[in-house]
Design a protein that fits this description.
12 strands; globular; alpha/beta; 236 residues; 30% strand; 11 helices; 8-stranded parallel beta barrel; TIM Barrel
């Protein structure tokens, strides 16, 4: 199981939100590339990077910071936030981003995701509020169940699905194992859990399922409730 530390970017700063609310942003670093180096030194192989401004604007908004993070480490980087067209996907891949996360567009235009998956390494981000897909930086909730959307990508050629329980995100209240398993069962794809991870009990609960491909760690690292080196030793 991959343990993937996260950096969320807002106005060039590394922040964490609570339940996806921009006004809840807490700044953790004005030099996000230094955080990425910390993760690498702790044993990380992957970095989960989100352009929060881009998620709301529907276009890249933290390009210079993303470039700096990319150039300062050897981490593999998956990146999401406001990616709506092939031009943006290509720009990020050419920049050295290893895989691109498509979120809102996956609900609006699943065929686009399928087409892009034939040309680029694509991950689908499914974020849910009470089991229903949230879009536009979590500002809106659709009437489509997350598991139904996941099922659409079962044979689309995507690399993985990242599923986030928005109600738990940034709350340090425990990961939603049941929801993650539901998405894994519906899609039969590698699934990465996100939202609410608090401590090693969450890591152990996900490991125990033997069905989860990875987990994203955000606030738990920043608030010191998870030690990354310990987490990596648990999965070796």
């Amino acid at each position: 199981m991959k343990i993937i530390p996260a950096i969320d970017l807002k106005d060039g700063l590394a922040v964490r939100l609570s339940k996806g609310l921009m006004q809840s942003a807490k700044i953790y670093s004005s030099a996000p590339w230094e955080l990425a180096a910390e993760f690498e030194n702790a044993g990380a192989q992957w970095l989960h990077l989100v352009d929060l401004n881009g998620a709301f604007a529907g276009e890249p908004k933290n390009l210079e910071t993303i470039k700096k993070i990319r150039n300062k480490t050897d981490l593999k980087v998956e990146l999401g936030g406001g990616i709506r067209d092939e031009e943006t996907i290509k720009k990020y891949i050419d920049m050295g981003i290893n895989r691109v996360i498509l979120g809102s567009i996956a609900l609006k235009n699943p065929k686009f995701v399928e087409n892009m998956s034939k040309k680029y390494p694509i991950v689908v981000g499914i974020d849910a509020i009470n089991g229903f897909v949230a879009v536009e930086g979590w500002a809106q909730t659709s009437n489509i169940k997350a598991s139904v959307l996941a099922q659409k990508f079962a044979n689309a050629g995507v690399s993985a699905i990242i599923c986030t329980d928005v109600s738990k995100d940034g709350m340090l209240c425990g990961v939603n194992v049941e929801f993650t398993l539901e998405i894994a069962t519906a899609s039969n794809l590698p699934v990465i859990a996100s939202g609410g991870v608090k401590d090693m009990n969450d890591i152990d609960a996900l490991l125990k399922t033997k069905k989860i491909d990875g987990v994203i760690i955000g606030k738990a690292y920043y608030e010191g409730t998870i030690n990354l080196k310990e987490a990596y030793s648990r999965i070796l």
